[in-house]
Amino acid sequence: MNKLSEAAKLLGRRGGLKGGVARAKALSPRRRVQIARRAIQARWEERLPPELWDLFWEFDARELRVAKARPTIFLKVLTRGRQAHKAWLAQRFGREQVRDWIIGRQGRGITTLSMREWGVTLGEIRRMRQANPALDMWDRR
Known about the structure:
mainly alpha
């Protein structure tokens, strides 16, 4: 990137930071609440993309909401999803959030290979397996 476009980028960022603060100050408290409610509703109403519907044969996938069915979506994509499904999961939630979800679940239902794919270290996997030896069954399938 050349120096001119770098400078323009920095100026735009600085202006954007100021503009957001100025807009927030100009809005009434009631209007801020309306905007926040609309944002929350949009997030909770987000539907599962059609590309993922084939993973959810036991549900009416058109009716699944991403925020409400998050654990089910994570598990289905991690255990049965193709690369495109996993790319959507990483883009939508972020690799770190998926990794944290796997660790919070102690890797139940997920193979070691799949855990490694999401950045779970071998040391973390060993600790999970030592805490619950039955988890090895996912790698023996």
